[in-house]
Amino acid sequence: MGLGNNQDHLTAAYIDQTAVIRVEGRGSFKISPPMRQFIHQAIKSGSANRILIDMSDCCGMDSTFMGVLAGLAYHIKDKPGTTFKLINLSEKNQKLLITLGVDRVLDYSLSCTGEEQELVAGQEEEVQVLEPDSSDKLDAAKTTLEAHETLANIKPDNFDKFKSVLELLQNDVRTLDQQ
User: Fold this and answer.
1) pLDDT tens, the chain, 179 aa long
2) Which of 76, 63, 44, 153 is nearest to 53 (CA)?
3) How far is CA 82 from CA 16, 50, 61, in A?
4) Whole-angstrom Cα distance, residue 10 to residue 54?
């Protein structure tokens, strides 16, 4: 029996100047907004100059999650002295990144260094769960739209893949924004 969406979640901790985030279950549209918010806050507040995302317990990723990762990678490249990396990525998830071209903009590895492993292990002590806010439908729609726009910008083929999704999301955002 596989993991359902209700078991997809994130945990995070600050260890020194590193924010360590662990993805458990699927990297999905449901957990993308809190991950994005946490990372933006970590950078804005100066709490972290390095972001590590531990993917060892991640069994798959959807396009929204990958688009958010790409958007974060672009955002962090504009922040001198700040790094962003996925570690312990499975070959299956690596292929997903390659399919959408996200591998072109994102630093990742299929394993981790000894120091990175110590940080991941240290996360257990200071861990917090990053919960999605299911009541904020506008934020979720904007995050999903932005993620797919990022994917379309990375690789022109992605625009054709996601054209109808982009149109639907643009309409959702307009409708929710008017409510």
Assistant:
1) 333 445 788 999 998 899 999 999 999 999 999 999 999 999 999 889 999 999 999 999 999 999 999 999 999 998 889 999 999 999 999 999 999 999 999 999 999 999 998 888 877 777 889 988 877 888 899 999 999 999 999 999 999 999 999 999 999 999 998 88
2) 76
3) 14, 5, 24
4) 10
Sign of torsion, CA 149 153 156 158? Answer: negative
Domain boundaries, the chain: 5-132
May I ask the CATH class of domain 5-132?
A: alpha beta
Q: Specify whether the CB–CB gap between 147 and 166 falls below 8 A.
A: no
Q: From CA 147, how far away is CA 75, in angstroms rounded?
A: 12
> What's the pTM value of the predicted model, to 2 decimals?
0.91
